[in-house]
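F.,

This is the one I mentioned.
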């Protein structure tokens, strides 16, 4: 009898989060402007999102711009704020062909009106698609998100719409940007830093982590697959004992 090897990816994360780090360093190493690194990073995002969709991942959340990134040089901030438009022009057709939905998480009050309109249009245009959801976190910060959620819950209590003892994990979860998604199963951070940088702190409570030295623009399909193979081999216990 032929002994068959088990498929390498018997299990993929339902919700994958990626901290897209290292665009600037990738560019600098090549003598390019940092903005070239961001452009290449955006192209790689399209490539990896298409692949993640093929592999059956339900949600892929990516950290594109944090609430702290506004402190970067104005020229770089201006370029990063042009990326949603550039990215949309690049992904529009292939995401449509592959039924990928695009959602955005984060504050909208500090974005330009043009960007807010664009984000809303992209969300509306892609809302009914049944493939993966690419959740782009833009002007996103986890502490900011949690404070916003707490304020909404407190308001419900003050207005006597919610009794205090009816506040559970799900209550807060319902007020997060990610309310419709499952918690994060796996988080990948590229480019060698070993930190979370205020990304999805609530949602990663039981997530597995993967850190790689490869900068985001160089993190192609083979390296991505290697990261997913590592996930497939892990045993998740969620605080319980080995099954
Ligand atoms: C971190 O690299 C990356 C960013 C701040 C931007 C990431 C954004 C993209 C890859 C494109 C996102 C697409 C959309 C649609 C907005 P870094 O600049 O911190 O790199 P460094 O640590 O090497 O300086």
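My design for it:
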């Amino acid at each position: 009898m032929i002994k068959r090897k088990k498929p390498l990816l018997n299990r993929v994360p339902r919700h994958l989060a990626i901290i897209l780090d290292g665009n600037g360093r990738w560019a600098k190493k090549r003598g390019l402007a940092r903005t070239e690194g961001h452009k290449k990073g955006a192209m790689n995002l399209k490539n990896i999102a298409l692949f993640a969709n093929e592999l059956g991942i339900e949600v892929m959340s990516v950290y594109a711009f944090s609430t702290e990134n506004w402190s970067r040089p104005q020229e770089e901030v201006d370029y990063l704020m042009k990326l949603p438009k550039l990215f949309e022009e690049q992904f529009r057709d292939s995401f449509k062909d592959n039924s990928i939905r695009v959602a955005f998480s984060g504050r909208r009050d500090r974005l330009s009106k043009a960007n807010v309109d664009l984000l809303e249009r992209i969300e509306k245009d892609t809302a009914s698609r049944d493939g993966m959801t690419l959740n782009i976190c833009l002007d996103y910060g986890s502490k900011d998100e949690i404070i916003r959620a707490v304020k909404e819950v407190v308001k419900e209590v003050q207005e006597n719409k919610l009794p205090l003892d009816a506040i559970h994990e799900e209550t807060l979860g319902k007020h997060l940007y990610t309310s419709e998604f499952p918690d994060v199963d796996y988080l990948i951070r590229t480019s060698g830093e070993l930190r979370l940088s205020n990304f999805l702190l609530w949602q990663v409570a039981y997530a597995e982590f993967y850190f790689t030295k490869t900068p985001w623009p160089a993190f192609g399909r083979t390296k991505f697959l290697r990261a997913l193979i590592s996930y497939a081999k892990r045993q998740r216990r969620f605080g319980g004992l080995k099954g």
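Residues 20-25, 38, 41-42, 45, 64, 69, 80, 83-84, 87, 136, 138, 216 surround farnesyl diphosphate (CB under 6 Å).

Talk soon.
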